[in-house]
Structures are given as C-alpha cells and as structure tokens.
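Priority: medium. Attachment 1 of 2:
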C-alpha cells in the first residue's frame, strides 16, 4: 500500500540500498555475458533442469515476475535446484519446515512506491510518487527439510515431435490476431505492423520456430497502439536497438516458460551479447527496466487469449 511520507531532502540511506541492488544484479549478469552466457537461458542449458520449462514459483504456485525470474533462474542453475518453488524462512516455518544446516538464501527484490510531500517556493504542498526497491531473502524448496512432498517434485519433461506443429502453440499465437506471414527472415516490421517468419520447415525443430516467433511477438507489442515502448532507436545496431532486442529476448524466454517449451539461442546472439554488455555497463538499472518491459509484453500477449486457453 502506498503511504504518504513528508520529506525535505531526496538523499536517503534507502537510495544507497537501491543502488547496491542494481549494481549487484547487473554485475552478476555482466559477468555471465562476458563469459558468453545468457543467464536467463541457463536453466535450459543445464542437465539438472532438463524437465519442463517453468517459471520460478512462490509457495502458493504464483509465479515470480520480472527481474526476480532472472535472479531465481540463475540461482537454480548455479546450485542445481530442480524444484521450481521458492519461499521465505517464515513461510517455510509456518509449514513446519526447517532450513538445512549451512544453506544460504537468495536475495530478490520487491518494488513499491511512497508519496513524498514537499513545499514549493510559494508555500504550496505538492505530492509525488517515489518508487523504491526492497531486498528480501528466499530459499529453494531443496534447501528445506519437512516440506510437503509436492514442493520437491521435478517438473515432468515435455516430449514433442520436433518436426510437427504444436496445435496448442499454434492456437495461442493465432489468438493474438497478429499478422504473421511467411518470408525469408524473422522480423517485425512496424511500418506495416506485420511479423515475417521463415517457413516452418526451415527450422531444425518446431520449438526453435516457436521460440523465434515468441521473440518477434514481443517486438510486436512495442507499437504506440499497444505498449508504446520506445528506446529511441535511430539506426540498426545502436543503443536503442540493443535495448529493444534485450527486452524481446527476455520476453521470449518468459513466454516460452509460461507455455512450457525451450527457446533456443540463435546464431546472432554472440553479436547481441556485445551490444548488451555496453548497454548494461552504461546503465546499471536497465536490466531491471528490460525485465519489467518484457514482463509487460508477455502479460499483454496473454491478455489476448480467450478464456478457454
């Protein structure tokens, strides 16, 4: 809940805490990118998570979103956790569970706002909404003893015929009413508001096709008529272009996780990694913004589905 707070100065200890959160998370992702790794794809490249792709889940089955999805996917990969469930120490103890000796939690973030009221030069009191972040610690179910058996289960692997179209995914993307046509490359053309995709048969697997389509569909959400997302792109390969590509990349991974398939990295990612490194080095907050934009894009696409899906 938003709480009114009267303050005279903008400098607060909480501001420094926020900078530390931004710097810590960005530094971790930068370190991975410098090694050629896409942190948000790690779960699918790890043998211990070869089951169904899934979002990190709270104890009550509600998925984590935005930057917390990236943080928890990466933590699960590094520590070989197979359970998708995460919870606080208090939530687990309420279920009569105990943290295993020597286990360390993972810090994630909570975003909120407070209202600042200040007097201007004319003596009038004006209010403004100030966003802030708070850290809190969660543990994976594998770090507890005594939880219900369901928290320890590894998602069942999804078996798909690689060269066949998936009826459920076909219906999902069709429900968006996006204009998708077959051409020579994968791209979203904003001038005509159309998505061009290479022939289905040209992809090595069906899931690779749907992963690329998910990426282009996230670009499709950026127009003024939809989410009005604009990073000031002036030309191919500039900073605005790189920022939008990072949003689409994250969005495709989030969407793939929601739909239960594995997005495959494309050959051009090596070049993208270099541009993303520059963007993230220039702006320590951008990975948070990119994850938030990606989450909004995915939610927009989901909202276009009929109730029966």
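Attachment 2 of 2:
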């Amino acid at each position: 809940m938003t709480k009114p707070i009267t303050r005279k100065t903008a400098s607060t200890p909480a501001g420094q805490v926020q900078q530390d959160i931004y710097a810590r998370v960005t530094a971790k992702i930068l370190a991975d990118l410098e090694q050629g790794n896409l942190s948000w794809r790690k779960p699918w490249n790890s043998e211990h998570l070869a089951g169904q792709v899934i979002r990190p889940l709270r104890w009550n089955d509600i998925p984590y979103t935005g930057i917390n999805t990236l943080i928890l996917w990466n933590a699960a990969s590094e520590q070989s956790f197979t359970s998708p469930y995460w919870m606080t120490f208090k939530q687990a103890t309420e279920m009569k569970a105990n943290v295993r000796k020597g286990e360390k939690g993972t810090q994630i973030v909570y975003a909120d706002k407070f209202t600042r009221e200040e007097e201007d030069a004319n003596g009038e009191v004006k209010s403004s909404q100030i966003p802030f972040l708070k850290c809190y610690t969660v543990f994976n179910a594998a770090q507890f003893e005594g939880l219900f058996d369901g928290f320890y289960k590894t998602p069942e692997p999804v078996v798909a015929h690689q060269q066949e179209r998936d009826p459920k995914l076909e219906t999902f993307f069709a429900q968006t009413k996006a204009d998708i046509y077959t051409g020579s490359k994968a791209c979203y053309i904003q001038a005509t508001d159309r998505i061009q995709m290479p022939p289905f048969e040209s992809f090595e697997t069906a899931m690779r096709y749907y992963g690329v389509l998910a990426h282009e569909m996230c670009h499709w959400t950026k127009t003024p008529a939809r989410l009005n997302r604009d990073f000031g792109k002036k030309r191919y390969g500039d900073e605005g272009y790189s920022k939008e590509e990072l949003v689409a990349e994250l969005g495709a991974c989030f969407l793939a996780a929601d739909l239960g398939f594995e997005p495959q990295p494309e050959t051009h990612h090596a070049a993208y990694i270099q541009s993303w490194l520059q963007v993230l080095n220039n702006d320590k907050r951008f990975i948070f913004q990119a994850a938030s934009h990606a989450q909004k894009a995915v939610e927009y696409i989901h909202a276009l589905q009929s109730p029966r899906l």
